[in-house]
Design goal:
This protein has about 350 residues and is an alpha/beta fold. The chain has twelve helices and 13 strands.
Length: about 350
Amino acid sequence: MVPSTNPTSTVIFKSLIAVKAGNAIIFSPHPAAAKCTTEAARIMQEAAERAGAPKGLILCITQPTLAATNELMKHKLTDVILATGGPGLVRAAYSSGKPAYGVGPGNVPVYIHESANIEKAVELIIESKTFDYGTICASEQALLVDESIKEKVVAEMTKQGAYFLNEEEKRKVESIILVNGGLNAKIVGKSPQVIGEMAGIEVPSEAKVIVAEETGVGKEYPFSIEKLSPTLAFYTVKDMQAASELAQKLLDAGGLGHTVGIHAEDEKVIEAYTIDKPAGRIIVNAGTTFGAIGATVNVKPSLTLGCGAIGNNVTSDNVTVNHLFNIKRVAFGVRQMPKKEESAQNEPALTK
């Protein structure tokens, strides 16, 4: 199952891990990305054939429908499902009666502690958040900034291309983030300037990301949700404890088990902040987009990021080729079970 937010890279990645593990793979594209998903699958199949693979190793549904996806998931020859998409799709995969690796949404909170290298932290965050216009589920969604360094962080972000909205502009952008209680698909993967135009405001041409100061969490505060666009919520916190509590609220609102980030130089702060976070990936002093997928930190490279039981997923791992093997174990006897008489002799005597 392929999402509309990163369809081509998902096809490439899932093709590679499937074939490496000796599997054929069939893709079911999101209707909004059907053409590029189909074309990516075609390119991968042609490359595989040039390397000696059989025809039909990598296929794609050409006319995606809900009925086609359901038939594919429940087909007798389907062995396992890799479901990347919204919560409804993941639930359907888990309900199909087949083994499934589903992944959950990310609503990634990133704490900037007063010990952080502010210039470097901001550089990494903006690089991460603007990649593919923020469509990666591991991209930063909210910055939690110590009040002692707020002015420095705001100044550095502005210097590096962030555009901070005033209150009127914020209300206008908020009005287009949610539609019927869900994320407005029309802002996903769009530039700051296009989003500004949709909201009826002018965003400078040099702006790389839109930022709004926020205080609340929940759907009544649209900047606090996963936005899949170059838009960030900016929270000011008193200290690490306040940041920790706020991060938990943001995860509860739609990102449990996924990813958390922190920028700090104080190792005691890093340990204290990260130890209790309900996330499969804790990214330290790196952009969460590239960190979570294993590009800039030492976790397994993957574009399928599990959220574990707390995120209603079967695994909290970065899903890789290892998850697509059936492992057969040939085990030789190395010890014998004790005989009944020996067991009785070795039992401790009962005492009064």
